[in-house]
Design goal:
Blueprint (H helix, E strand, L loop, with lengths): L18 H20 L2 H15 L5 E5 L1 H12 L1 H5 L6 E5 L4 H4 L9 H9 L8 E5 L6 H12 L3 E5 L6 H5 L2 E3 L15 H20 L3 E2 L2 E2 L7 H15 L3 H9 L5 H7 L3
Helix pairs in contact: 1-9, 2-9, 3-9, 6-7, 10-11
Length: 269
């Protein structure tokens, strides 16, 4: 039996716990999820370096998953453009069932190998691309189809699961499998397995973007002034880098197409 499908010995009576005890047990399992990520840092690092090498040559990063896994991939991909100023076709999230499945679960969608092949093939995958297949159990047919398609195209393939030796890992060039163990509610892998995967996807995208030069020191310098909050953040970042006051930094940005990179260059940095 998969570890993620086993019963958790600490929660067999959770339906009779007081709220405070229930929350403490859930939090203890959350901490276990974070600890599980620790052992996977070498594999995550290998994925980051391999993905970065391809993206430096014009490749794209794809996340492919089903259910919670798919939603987490789409979430991480969708946040890269506003955070790092990259185009929406740089990091792409694909999930079984498409956009409607983001809000309304369609569990049967993960069972189609052909749909996984088709949905990824639509992007014209090449050897410069990287495809991260996400499946907690590690056997979703949709993800298997996508990874097989990527493999045939010569793309980098990464398997993100919570079960070592699972089917998607057997296909992939790199396997990442945090051992999060049995869930608080048996089989509800949207919980700590999902938490571990969210952490790992954040690590991958953040590290890749840093290595691609989209971060200066620890500051987001490719932001777009698309709302009041981001405009203010851009001004404050310019203050931090240049040492200028708020109004001076705003004026410097205004004079340089509201681009932090252009503004600090114009300032002589």
């Amino acid at each position: 039996m998969l570890k993620t499908e086993m019963r958790n010995e600490h929660t067999t009576h959770i339906d009779r716990m007081e709220t405070a005890e229930m929350l403490r047990v859930i939090q203890n399992e959350n901490l276990n999820a974070a600890r599980a990520v620790e052992s996977e840092l070498p594999a995550i690092g290998a994925a980051v370096d391999a993905i970065t090498e391809r993206m430096k040559r014009g490749g794209r990063l794809f996340y492919v998953g089903c259910g919670t896994s798919g939603r987490l991939g789409v979430l991480d991909a969708s946040e890269c453009p506003p955070t790092y100023g990259v185009s929406y076709d740089t990091v792409i999230g694909i999930m079984a069932g498409g956009i409607p499945a983001l809000a309304r679960a369609g569990e049967a969608d993960e069972d189609s190998y052909e749909d996984g092949c088709r949905d990824l093939s639509a992007y014209g995958i090449t050897e410069l691309d990287s495809v991260v297949g996400i499946s907690v159990a590690g056997g979703a047919a949709f993800v298997l189809g996508a990874l097989d398609t990527a493999k045939k195209a010569g793309a980098l393939t990464v398997a993100l699961s919570c079960n070592a030796g699972c089917p998607i890992e057997q296909i992939a060039d790199i396997g990442i499998h945090p051992d999060t163990g049995a869930e608080v509610v048996t089989g509800s892998t949207r919980m700590k397995a999902g938490t571990a995967h969210k952490m790992i996807l954040n690590m991958i995208s953040t590290s890749v973007m840093i290595k691609l030069g989209h971060v200066y020191e620890n500051l987001m310098v490719n932001l777009e002034p698309s709302n009041v909050k981001l405009r203010d953040r851009m001004i404050r970042i310019t203050c931090d880098i240049t040492g200028l006051g708020y109004e001076e930094s705003e004026a410097l940005l205004e004079a340089n197409e509201f681009s932090i990179r252009k503004a600090i260059k114009a300032h002589g940095l």
